[in-house]
């Protein structure tokens, strides 16, 4: 999906979505402030978010969090721009896409949740010996949706290892995100780029085997962040700080806790997923450092994100961090939350 097409879809989505919920600042009982979060998908990758909810960290900060899942970056951003949610949890690239369209009320990234890509390279057969990316050349590769961060991080990794995705692979990108695991299981592709828990589930079922991590290969970047419109942050600075504090508490807890403890804390968000699967996914993400230890988006991460976007042809021009990143809340949370 090109930049112009993406912009048209995003603007169409904004017109289609109507704001039907009360905004942040509307008080419930006592001193609690309601904050509506829209997450781009329900994923174990977002474990610290669920920890913040189930461990009561938002509640302790005086926030009544309402969490909804708004599948897809375009839909999540459209809902945020239209006022249907207060805070979006989505890839930082979406704030850049909005900026590229021109906006009087830019979307600001204020708290990072994950700091690597969350996908893995899955093969039909177990790895024999040391893996070399060159074995992918000439194979059929089932990739992610064009223009999204998984696909961009995937292609960035492939190019880093001397593979031109469009020329060296039979690259398939016309399968809907939700249908990619099913397509691979039914015989499409020799290799596939998969999120968890599908990768771990495939291993347990003997349908596929993780042989490399795109998260490790593509480096640190603000992969998933909490963001809000600048006007919202300006009007609700106190609530934004409380939000950042709650997330930092969760990040601290995740870093200090065992895989088993984290699994128990988030299992209620995945009632249809076997606990052993959740445990395996948490272990994999924790070991490769996918969960951010704080919400600060540093310049190196921001620039790496833009390198990935630029390599994919999805960046019109580079954006200075200060234009779309506000680290004040994350920095204060890191200093004050213990």
TrEMBL record:
User: Does the keyword Ribosomal protein belong to this entry?
Assistant: no
This protein's UniProt keywords: Signal
Its chief place of residence is periplasm
Q: Where in the cell is it found?
A: Periplasm
The signal peptide stretch is 1-22
Please give the family membership noted in the entry. Belongs to the bacterial solute-binding protein SsuA/TauA family.
Has the keyword Transmembrane been applied to this entry?
no
Return the protein name.
Answer: ABC transporter substrate-binding protein
Q: Which domain of life is it from?
A: Bacteria
Please give the organism: Paenibacillus gyeongsangnamensis
């Amino acid at each position: 999906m090109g930049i112009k097409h993406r912009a048209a879809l995003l603007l169409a989505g904004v017109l289609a979505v109507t704001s039907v919920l009360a905004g942040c600042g509307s008080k419930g009982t006592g001193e609690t402030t309601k904050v509506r979060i829209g997450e781009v998908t329900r994923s174990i990758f977002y474990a610290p978010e669920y920890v913040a909810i189930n461990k009561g960290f938002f509640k302790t900060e005086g926030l009544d969090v309402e969490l909804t899942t708004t599948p897809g970056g375009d839909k999540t951003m459209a809902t945020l721009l239209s006022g249907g949610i207060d805070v979006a949890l989505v890839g930082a690239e979406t704030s850049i896409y909005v900026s590229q369209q021109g906006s009087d009320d830019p979307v600001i990234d204020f708290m990072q949740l994950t700091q690597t890509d969350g996908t893995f390279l899955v093969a039909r057969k177990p790895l024999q010996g040391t893996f070399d990316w060159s074995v992918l050349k000439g194979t059929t590769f089932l990739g992610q949706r064009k223009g999204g961060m998984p696909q961009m991080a995937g292609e960035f990794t492939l190019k880093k290892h001397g593979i031109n995705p469009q020329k060296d692979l039979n690259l398939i990108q016309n399968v809907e995100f939700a249908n990619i695991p099913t397509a691979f299981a039914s015989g499409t592709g020799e290799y596939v780029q998969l999120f968890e828990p599908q990768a771990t589930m495939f291993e347990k079922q003997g349908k596929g085997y993780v042989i490399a991590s795109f998260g490790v290969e593509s480096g640190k970047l603000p992969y998933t962040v909490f963001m809000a419109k600048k006007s919202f942050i300006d009007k609700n600075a106190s609530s934004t700080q409380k939000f950042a504090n709650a997330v930092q508490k969760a990040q601290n807890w995740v870093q200090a806790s065992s895989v088993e403890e984290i699994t128990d804390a988030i299992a209620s968000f995945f009632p249809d997923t076997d606990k052993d699967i959740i445990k395996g996914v948490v272990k994999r993400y924790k070991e490769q450092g996918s969960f951010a230890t704080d919400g600060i988006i540093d310049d190196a991460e921001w620039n790496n994100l833009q390198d990935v976007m630029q390599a994919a042809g999805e960046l019109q021009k580079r954006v200075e961090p200060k234009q779309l990143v506000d680290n004040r809340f994350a920095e204060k949370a890191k200093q004050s939350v213990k």
